[in-house]
Amino acid sequence: MKHFSFLFIAMVLFGSCRPGSRDLTLLVGTYTPENGHGIYTCRFNPSGAHIEFLDSTASDNPSFLAVSPLTGIVYAVNESGPGSALSSFITDRETGLIHALRRIDNPGADPCHLAVDPAGRYVVTADYSSGTLTFFNTGSHDILGRVRYAGSGPDPARQQAPHIHCVVLSPSGEHLFATDLGTDRIYVLKNVRTGIPVPEQTVVLEPGSGPRHMTFNKSGSRAYLINELSGMVTVFAHREGKLEQIQSLVADTCQARGSAHIALSGDGRFLYASTRLQGDGMVIYSVDPDEGTLTRKGFLATGSHPRHFLITPDDKWVLVSCKNENQIEIYRRNIKTGLLTDTGKRAPVRQPVCIGIL
Questions:
Q1: Any residues with CB less than 8 A from the CB of 203 and at least 6 apart, and which?
Q2: How do residues 201-215 score in pLDDT, each as one tens digit?
Q3: How far apart are CA 122 and CA 144, in angstroms?
Q4: What are the residues whose beta carbons fall under 8 Å from the beta carbon of 60, sequence distance 6 or more?
Q5: How far apart are CA 226 and CA 252, in angstroms?
Q6: H or E element, residue 55
Q7: Is 0.85 topped by the overall pTM?
């Protein structure tokens, strides 16, 4: 059964556009508290900044998606408390048609992020409420193992227990990093030839910072972290799984405690961070080409609750999923200055919280 109430509206607003060589097939993950359907596929046409919705499939709270680089299988977390799960789908890149493969229960609670091992051995979920990592076999979807964390932080409202918020692999694929919003730590695990990654070290951050999302530059020499509670961006020098903090600067000037996502432009010259709850928008930083340190360049207000965003591979567009606005907002990006301009174009979809490329 397909759900097209929002899709029809989007097609009327944007019209259809035939796929071209530069078109992108996108995946959109959502929250589904009421009439939301789950996962949507759409086509983004860069020449006209048009979005055409293609298909959708039912899935409960698929709040984060990832595509296997080896098989093209789409994996989604189902962030649904005690009913949480990992789901997989097969999607046709040309047509956008998406079909469910299988779903397996996650013994953890509220997985909100995932990563696919580049060698194709496992999918790992960051289980926010249970403070765990759960590793699934990519073939059978059996659970390979779990890692449970303990501890707390100084914030009585948000840090009474571990809250794993993000899992990301180093560009070499040799290490897995897990950010723990609840205990102000980054856990580093080493990939091994057999079995699940093994714990190697722990990076202790400033108390009350609340680490959320993390990304690496292409060489892996620098890592960038957005801290949800402190509203700071932290820059690390990275080598062989070891992180050394070299800079920290503010993203959330309103102290709203809602910093969300972080990403580098494809050329590595600019870093972007989204902030929520007050002064919602995108913060832009330039990246020093030698040191990898940041300089704040600007800010652009967006719609309410920009939880996630995507920089297109051509570096010309930024698509922002504004959950509370029930829409994806389209911004033109200046490649030279890194600054963003609002096109005024919107793609309606209920509670979008993740955008990926198929």
A1: 185, 186, 187, 188, 243
A2: 999 999 999 999 999
A3: 8
A4: 32, 38, 78, 80, 83
A5: 10
A6: strand 50-58
A7: yes
